[in-house]
Amino acid sequence: xxxxxxxxxxxxAVPEVRFHVAAPPLRDxxxxxYIVDAPGPLHDTLHPEWANIRFGFAGIWEFETFHGDGRxxxxxxxxxxxxxxxxxxxTSGGSTLGIGLTPLGWLRLVGGDASRVANAxxxxxxxxxxxxxxxxxxxxxxxxxxxxxAYLDALLTRRAARPGxxxxxxxxAHAVLIAGEVEDVxxxxxRVGVERxxxxxxxxxxxxxxPVRLLARQRFLRTLGAVRDHLDRPLSEIIDYGYYDQAHFxxxxxxxxxxxPMAYFNAPREVLRRAGTERLKALGALVQGLHxx
Length: 293
Prior knowledge:
The chain is of the alpha+beta class. Helix content is 40%, strand content 18%. Helix 1 packs antiparallel against helix 4 and helix 4 packs across helix 5. It starts with 15 loop residues before the first strand and ends in a 10-residue tail after the last helix.
């Protein structure tokens, strides 16, 4: 079961986190391929994120299900829907490989209504056109990261050839969310060039959440990214313009991450801290939800 409070860094293994960029034709669909190798027990919390596909190679990886104290023991190949809150996870040690999907990647590579799997985890099955367990087996037996990336590039490039719908609207909406220049749904709709009702349908289908929730989510992620490297400065000087004050941000932080900012930044965060550093170096973004379009 997940710990009630963060455990000290001395009690956790030191993981290795590596990011790889997808082939050029896939870069507006895939934020990254990432590998986490954990030599021993780890507990951490994922940030709100777009959809991910994760393959487990070794060890047991448990993820919070958001239903009471429920937990999901990840299978060989799982689809993680987009999330609007932090998700605790734990492992006894092992390796996992993930594919981060952009909203456009969701449309082209998986398809369907994202709101139906929002905050959910389901077996991957044949959603990529090949049985997920078979994909996981090939990845596990590969000779290293290079072979894994080459295999996934080839698989996803073939998959990406299938036509998608609503792609241009999805691109525009994603660009508006990443730019972080609007806080009002009316302005959001105007920037995308659609009526509010149509924007709501688009956001649920492509991003998994309502426009109001998406704007709040992105505001939180922007501030989280800004605060991370400036913990020596008062929060009031760093928080996003969309927050009324620091108390507003503190309430939002607790709602999105399930803990106070102090508890979060004092926690070891052995995986996510390293992931933020490596993602920024490799991809130019601290978290998946801020990945440039």
